[in-house]
Amino acid sequence: MSKAAELEDFALYGGPVKAEVILDGKEVVNYGGCSYLGLTGHPVAEAAATKALEQYGLAASIARAYGVANPVLLELEQVAARFFGTEAAFCAAAGYLASPLAISALTDTNTRLYVDQVCHHSLVFGAQATGQPIERYTHNLGWDDPEALRDFVLQTLRPGEKPLFAMDGITGLLGDISPVPEFVRLADEFDGIVYVDDAHAVGVLGDNGRGTAEYFGIDSDRVCFGATFSKALGGLGGVIFGPEHFVARARSSAMARGSNLGSIPHAAAAIALMEHLMADKAPIQKLHRNIRVFKTLLQELGVSLPAFPTSISSFAFGSYDDHAAMQRNLLQDHGIFLCHSNYTGAGPEGLIRIAVFADHSDDHLDHLIRALTPYLSK
Ligand SMILES: Cc1ncc(COP(=O)(O)O)c(C=O)c1O
């Protein structure tokens, strides 16, 4: 099948996307996507969304710059700031918009942007939209050779310029964690800012699921984060969080003044899920446990993985066609859905990406390991 035809070839979901999902009418164990905490379709979120829908209907509100605001979105920002333990938070209509909104708000006419070579397209898009000069730094250079990263900044930053470093907290396909503390050091040295898209880290890293800041213990007023409610938090919508002086810039940015800030039922669902998680850490603890168990089992099969406690395990074992065949066969023969992806960070053969969720059982994980064994022990 051609790659173009593959893009047109998809199975249809028949219910919420969790560890068990209906695909083309059949029950399948799902390792694709990002429902890390298994909260999609959670009753507290559905009830909150239904109530908001009944009260406000489906229509979105206009931008706040016109002097009106929806109280659910304002509450979302307060609850998000509490959830993330930051001074402030600000919402965006989609996770994809969080990075362009934050990056444009944090960029001045003397900013030089340093964007990870392997990051989500929304960061690249946001950086390009500023019209300011952009450098692409080598992915993981901050882990492998921090001095080389510093030299790169020294060689490229012009007099009078300030750097803005932009990266994913967890890279969505590779599942590794960015060396954020290294960038905080560089931001301190060069009077810069660090922006982290924590879409894949929120709900996953840290005892409270706060993401890379909690994982590394970062407490710096030079760092601002963005994320989406569409992954671990099971809904839809973007969020920016960090020190008030950054969030205030996002609030008054041209993008925020020219767009509505989100779907009200989804905002209500996100509030309910964050409150739920602040009261009950069991989904986070279960996810951490599943990550440990699955990564150990996969390594015992000979797969080498970076030592990061992320939900995502990615590997290549053959050609593009081998990987595509594995994805097809596991679905047809074992009722297992996993992703073969050639998104940014993969070579031409692509990568097999497996995401473990909090609602996977030991039986699910054993079943997957048995299905993978013939491919990986060749
Ligand atoms: C790192 C990152 N940022 C932003 C997004 C966009 O989020 P959403 O799909 O909720 O708009 C994604 C989605 O894949 C992502 O992986």
UniProtKB/TrEMBL annotation:
Domain (Aminotransferase class I/classII large) ranges: 29-372
Aminoacyl-tRNA synthetase recorded as keyword: no
InterPro entries on file: Aminotrans_II_pyridoxalP_BS, Aminotransferase_I/II_large, AON_synthase_class-II, PyrdxlP-dep_Trfase, PyrdxlP-dep_Trfase_major, PyrdxlP-dep_Trfase_small
Protein keywords: Aminotransferase, Pyridoxal phosphate, Transferase
Molecular function GO labels: pyridoxal phosphate binding; transaminase activity
Required cofactor(s): pyridoxal 5'-phosphate
Signal peptide residues on this chain, from the entry's feature table: none
SUPFAM superfamilies: PLP-dependent transferases
Top-level taxon in the UniProt lineage: Bacteria
Gene3D superfamilies attached to this UniProt entry: Aspartate Aminotransferase, domain 1, Type I PLP-dependent aspartate aminotransferase-like (Major domain)
Pfam families linked to this entry: Aminotran_1_2 (PF00155)
Entry similarity comment: Belongs to the class-II pyridoxal-phosphate-dependent aminotransferase family.
PANTHER family per the UniProt record, alphabetical: CLASS II AMINOTRANSFERASE/8-AMINO-7-OXONONANOATE SYNTHASE (PTHR13693), LD36009P (PTHR13693:SF3)
Name of the featured protein: Pyridoxal phosphate-dependent aminotransferase family protein
Source organism of this protein record: Alterisphingorhabdus coralli
Lineage: Bacteria, Pseudomonadati, Pseudomonadota, Alphaproteobacteria, Sphingomonadales
